[in-house]
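Hi R.,

Here's the chain you asked about this morning:
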Amino acid sequence: MSEREVQRVIRAQEMAEGAGVTVRRAIGTQEAIYLDPFLLLDEAFIPSGTGFPPHPHRGFQAVSYVLAGAMAHEDSAGNVGTLHPGDLQLMVAGKGIVHSEMPVGDATTHGIQLWINLPPELKACEPRYQDHRAAEVPEVLEDTARIKVICGSYDSTPGPAQPATPFDYFDVALDTGGFFHHRVAPQDTVLIYMLEGGARFGLEGHPVLSGDLAEFGPGTDVVGASPEGCRFLLLAGAKIGAPIVRRGPYVD
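And here is the predicted structure, written out as tokens:
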């Protein structure tokens, strides 16, 4: 086993997006403009009366994951759906699509938006959309950990989302004194975004706290422990290695 060490920690930056929405942006800032293949990671807080009215996208795929509240999606391909806590949607923008994401009800919707780049040969693919209910997302229960598998596979348990290119996306909760271990491909980009609490990773025990994005160095195993309990997102994906031109909602 070759444990990956935390290479750097990036603090999410609070900023305004859409129509009155506040996000904590961990990827897509000057400090972390592009962590191949991951283009953007926002933790969004969407009060009633705000949201993301119709807007275009092109050249990437996006996963929206609702943590609290509800969000309605509608797009130019005729797809319509409402996401509730634990639900997710995968949208492959491909050659181009227009969509909206708006909160439902009076409560603030809390969710995660993740953008993943597409390789050059898929930039002009047909757009497609899928949504999955919370009940479809498998949860692997270990002694002190609960791992929800959104994309990819954890310990041979696959997630429901079928992206255009493979990557791992897990929602992990550790109990007090909890332990986490996951083997990754040596060449993959590996990131952890801490939602709640904190944990220490690698042989050096590098701390990662709520609102931090940890980028890991080389190795085959991500190992962490949380003295007080925590919740985090793990992302792992192969680098595409192609240059990109980024213009707002378009990634060519």
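One quick note: The chain has a mean pLDDT of 96.

Cheers,
M.
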